[in-house]
């Protein structure tokens, strides 16, 4: 089985968010970038397929040279090869078209993406990708097994979960649950050394659709101070008469 | 040229979010000087949508679509969009809508913006406000394609009545076997339980509850309030509660009207996913817990003392206001 894991390079989850250039750009100053958490679960599941079923695992990222440290980390975790599409990821449509272009010639059986990246929270790349490629697609995956050409996945639904079955080639949008948190791999010295020698191919972007454009950003208005109350009575009264939520 | 809205349902009945997205669609249609057409699947009382400004309903009745199937539903909506010459499609932010919307976007070459929190700021250029950076920011996003798909954040716009009469038509899209290549084998869902996505009120517990054996009072409080139950990430990681209840940046997003956090410290990753809730109440024994900075109301105290009292008071309140 040949697997491609799509890796998004995102601000670390504790990052403070700021904007520059008249609030038109995300301020990367002092921000640490990491593998998107949803992708990390997928990458770890792919490593399981590599170890248990002899799969080959490639990773791909659409991004400028600054994303390479994140890609090296994915290689240190154990991916075999990496592909970087040399372009700033402008929107979900653009990213999906770039990835589709490298996947269509790569003969991948399984494409693993995250349900959404935690920066722009678009959640569109896996679905657009699957549709452009005519591959089967399961989103919000919390479990994935592959036997021959048959995949069984569990996906989260509102209020529960659904088990689905389909065939390869398949694209999934994955998330926490694909593997246990405790199974997430921290790259060790040997992995890091080996990652340096692995191939990181750089391909130039194709002309692609840009469907949306973030014109401006802002932040939520600062909240007023919390109202501390001493009794349940008082709380019920405030929730009813002031907040009007009960 | 109408605005098309996908109205979700369960067991033949519309979900509350269906009325919210219909209300949103009506606001967009008013801005564009057009009307609202809804597409619904196997629903019984389609006239209901008229109350929220929908003037035409395309009702799909097909046993094969009894359970949600992303590709088959997306194909049906695509065909409806084409037959109506729609340029704007509105969907909700449910897990299912977030599954089908990108498929639909790819088919229609439409720009899709999820997590939208307000009616369009302008229709030329077409600009909407959405949350980004896990609720730590907002983006004002222009959709540059001719066809546009908007995913409305739950509870952000609200349900607004706009009485009109809905003309109901039967609509059946052409579907083939490949549309059903992903087959549903089993759905595991507790009947009658409020889900986090649909809930007006969410009661959430953290590590401060010490163990799964103490969840009875969380469930009891939720029951009194008609709320959904949720938890912080370590709680589901330790197996105290099911994974589907974990809320936050890497879990389910919560955009309820009332969020009650009990024994949850308020780490940045937790807040990121729940801060879209309108009113936040925190019960924590540590006055320095970061969650107090993000909350509207707080009680500094031991959950094991405060929660039973709160349940009692709420029961009294309900009895008086019944
Ligand atoms: C990449 C990444 C992603 C993450 N994503 C998420 C996410 O999506 N959601 C999430 O929740 N977390 C997430 N986390 C974890 C997050 O950082 C915190 O560890 C977590 O939210 C803490 O959970 P908690 O508040 O239940 O536990 P704790 O931090 O242990 O807090 C327990 C709280 O309970 C209080 N308490 C103790 N006893 C009592 C009592 N008797 N009565 C009242 N209060 C009491 C304590 O004062 C304390 O404030 C993520 C972390 C990382 C690194």
Task: Note down, in words, how this protein is organized.
Chain A is an alpha/beta fold and 246 residues long. Chain A has six helices and 15 strands. Chain A has a nine-stranded mixed sheet with strand order 11-10-9-12-8-1-6-7-13, sandwiched between helices. A two-stranded antiparallel ribbon of chain A has the order 2-5. In chain A, strand 10 (150-157) and strand 11 form a beta hairpin. In chain A, helix 2 packs across helix 5. Chain A is globular and about 60 Å long. The mean pLDDT of chain A is 97. Chain B is of the alpha/beta class and 322 residues long. Helices cover 28% and strands 27% of the residues of chain B. In chain B, a hairpin with a 2-residue loop joins strand 8 (122-123) and strand 9 (126-132). The longest helix of chain B has 19 residues, at 303-321. At the A-B interface, helix 3, helix 4, strand 9, strand 10 and strand 11 of A face helix 3, strand 7, strand 9, strand 10 and strand 13 of B. Strand 11 (160-167) of chain A pairs antiparallel with strand 13 of chain B, so a sheet runs across the interface. Bound molecules: flavin-adenine dinucleotide (FAD). Residues 206-208, 232-235, 248-251, 263-265, 267, 269-270, 273, 283-286, 289, 302-304 of chain B line the site of flavin-adenine dinucleotide.
């Amino acid at each position: 089985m040949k697997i491609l894991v799509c890796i998004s390079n995102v601000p670390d989850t504790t990052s403070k968010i700021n904007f520059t250039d008249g609030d038109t750009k995300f301020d990367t100053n002092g921000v640490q970038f990491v593998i998107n958490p949803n992708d990390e679960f997928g990458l770890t599941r792919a490593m399981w397929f590599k170890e248990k079923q002899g799969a080959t695992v490639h990773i791909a990222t659409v991004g400028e040279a600054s994303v390479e440290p994140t890609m090296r980390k994915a290689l240190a975790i154990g991916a075999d090869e990496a592909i970087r599409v040399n372009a700033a990821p402008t929107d979900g449509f653009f990213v999906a078209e770039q990835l589709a272009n490298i996947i269509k010639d790569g003969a991948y059986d399984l494409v693993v993406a995250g349900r959404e990246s935690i920066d722009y929270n678009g959640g569109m790349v896996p679905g657009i990708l699957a549709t452009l490629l005519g591959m089967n697609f399961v989103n919000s995956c919390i479990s994935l097994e592959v036997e021959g050409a048959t995949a069984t996945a569990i996906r989260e639904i509102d209020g529960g979960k659904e088990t689905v079955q389909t065939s390869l080639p398949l694209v999934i949008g994955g998330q926490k649950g694909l593997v246990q948190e405790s199974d997430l791999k921290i790259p060790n010295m040997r992995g890091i050394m080996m990652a340096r020698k692995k191939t990181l191919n750089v391909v130039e972007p194709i002309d692609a659709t840009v469907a949306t454009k973030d014109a401006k950003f802002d932040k939520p208005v600062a909240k007023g101070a919390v109202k501390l109350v001493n009794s349940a009575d008082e709380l019920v009264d405030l929730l009813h008469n002031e907040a009007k939520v009960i | 040229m109408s605005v098309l809205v996908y109205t979700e349902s369960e067991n033949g009945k519309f979900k509350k979010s269906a009325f919210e997205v219909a209300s949103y669609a009506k606001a967009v249609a008013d801005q564009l000087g057009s009307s609202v057409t809804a597409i619904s699947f196997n629903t019984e009382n389609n006239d209901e949508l008229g109350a929220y400004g929908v003037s035409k309903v395309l009702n799909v009745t097909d046993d094969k679509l009894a359970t949600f199937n992303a590709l088959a539903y997306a194909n049906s909506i695509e065909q409806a969009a084409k037959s109506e010459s729609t340029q704007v499609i509105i969907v909700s932010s449910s897990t299912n809508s977030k599954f089908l919307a990108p498929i639909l976007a790819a088919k229609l070459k439409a720009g899709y913006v999820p997590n939208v929190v307000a009616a369009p700021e302008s229709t030329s250029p077409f600009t909407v406000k959405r949350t980004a950076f896990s609720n730590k920011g907002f983006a004002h996003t222009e959709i540059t394609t001719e066809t546009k798909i908007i995913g409305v954040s739950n509870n952000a716009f609200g349900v607004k009545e706009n009485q009109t009469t809905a003309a109901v038509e039967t609509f059946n899209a052409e579907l083939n076997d490949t549309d059903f290549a992903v087959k549903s084998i089993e759905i595991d869902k507790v009947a009658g339980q409020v889900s986090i996505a649909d809930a007006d009120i969410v009661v959430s517990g953290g590590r401060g509850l010490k163990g799964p054996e103490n969840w009875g009072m969380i469930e009891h409080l939720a029951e009194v309030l008609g709320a959904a139950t949720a938890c912080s990430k370590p709680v589901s990681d330790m197996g105290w509660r099911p994974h589907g209840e974990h809320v936050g940046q890497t879990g389910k997003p919560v955009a309820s009207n009332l969020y009650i956090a009990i024994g949850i410290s308020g780490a940045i990753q937790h807040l990121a996913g729940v801060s879209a809730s309108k009113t936040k109440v925190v019960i924590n024994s540590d006055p320095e817990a970061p969650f107090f900075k993000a909350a509207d109301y707080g009680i500094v105290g031991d959950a094991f003392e405060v929660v039973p009292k709160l349940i009692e008071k709420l029961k009294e309140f309900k009895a008086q206001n019944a």
